[in-house]
Protein: Pyrroline-5-carboxylate reductase
Amino acid sequence: MNQFKGSIAILGSGNIGVSLAKGLIKADYALPSQITLTRRNISNLSVLAEQGFVISADNSAVVGNADIVVLAVLPQQLNQLLEQIRPSVDAKKQVFISVASGVSCADIRSKLGEDVQVIRAMPNTAIAIGQSMTCVATDHATKDNVEEVIRMFETVGSVVKINEDLMTSATALCACGIAFFLRAIRAASQGGVEIGFHADEALKMAVQTAKGAADLLLQMQSHPEQEIDKVTSPKGCTIAGLNEMEHNGFSSSLIKGIKLSAVKAGALYTKE
Structure:
């Protein structure tokens, strides 16, 4: 990978911001000295300072020196942050990446200036281990800038470019989705305890089985039903269990949950 030549500011360095920073270093995309991390309480970033990252509590000053600015705060904190950094924005040289749910590129441009390049990215918490599913969208940023942002997020997992009107849907399916699959694994492990395994054994078995199922689809590039057909024999135990789950609304409850999360994701940010 060709190293990025400029400087990157990550404003609001919580789990996602810090994971991205570490991923960029691990993939040799940038050096720690090229990345500045900010948050209100910078004592929480002291370990990262020891690793060579630049640490600051002054968002405005940091943006003034940056080529790429990652807005990694909660939607509820975004307006205040945009207010702080507006005087330091240079639309000609900077790209802004927003990971705030439910905030459109147009929302951010209305606060920073209409000619600002804004790209939205929605990673999930598996970014911490380089296994994120990140969706990227923009309404007007240049092709080169979009490709640069995709390259950044490919250091921490898989990336799909989508239309911006699908970003709240992507939040529900990929970001909230982590919790849905975790809950399914937890339920499977509880079932394991009920049929005779110790809790730690049951969890290990459920986790590895879930990982195997996901890897089967990724590596064989097959469809879930194709793989299910291989496990379900006539009058067998697998189909009996599957049908019992379906009678109790397994698939429909997951679908309804994803739909509700998408509605909620779109309502996290207020423009005022």
